[in-house]
Write a structure and sequence with these properties.
Number of domains: 1
Strand order of the largest sheet: 4-5-6-1-7-8
Helix content: 40-55%
Number of helices: 8
CATH architecture: 3-Layer(aba) Sandwich
Number of strands: 8
Length: 234
Amino acid sequence: MEIPGVFAGGCGKTTLLRCIAGLEPVSKGLININGTEIKAPGTDRMMVFQDFNQLFPWLNVRNNIIFPLKVAGRGQNDKERKQLADYYLELVGMNDYINLYPYQLSGGMKQRTAIARALALNPKVLLMDEPFGSLDAVTRTDLQEELLKIWEETKVTIIFVTHNIEEALLLTNRIIVMKSGRIEKIMQNSIPRPRHYNMREFICMWEELRELLTGKDSKVKTVRKIKKEAELAF
């Protein structure tokens, strides 16, 4: 995942994503993607929100994918659009639920469908604004793993906003820390994959991010001290 973000509350993260999506104008400067200035919404930038209610309630799961494909002119005919919808629904693990309606879905299933809909339009950038923030811990972990699999297969650039340090460290290749609407620091996430919460590199980066966001030391500080003492000893 290319450009994620860890942000404190109220730092303008959603506004930033909406500007990248072309949903809000920038008041100063400009936003470019591959040399093209962003002035309006486009299917090259698709957004997945935290809110579960982003699906069309009158359409079933499959038609929630087919409808935007038809509007965007993707696919030569209805048969091809159906095939595209089914491919992306299978990618997110929703192929057994294509005839269900949003009111019949759990929060996690709704988010899977929203991700499939965004990917089906073949965007250059997938914008995700705390998409797992309202899910229970087990479902959140499942979807994090699913997102990693999707990224491995599609290689789409993802800008993922989260308040959760562990989530940022688990998913990303690069982390942008923002405070008060400004970029505080850009960090390369070099933790080896597959990643686990108990890895030494994971704990050390967690500590560094927490200090950046809060300005406070952590009890996990001892891990870094132990590491330095061990290096000195040898």
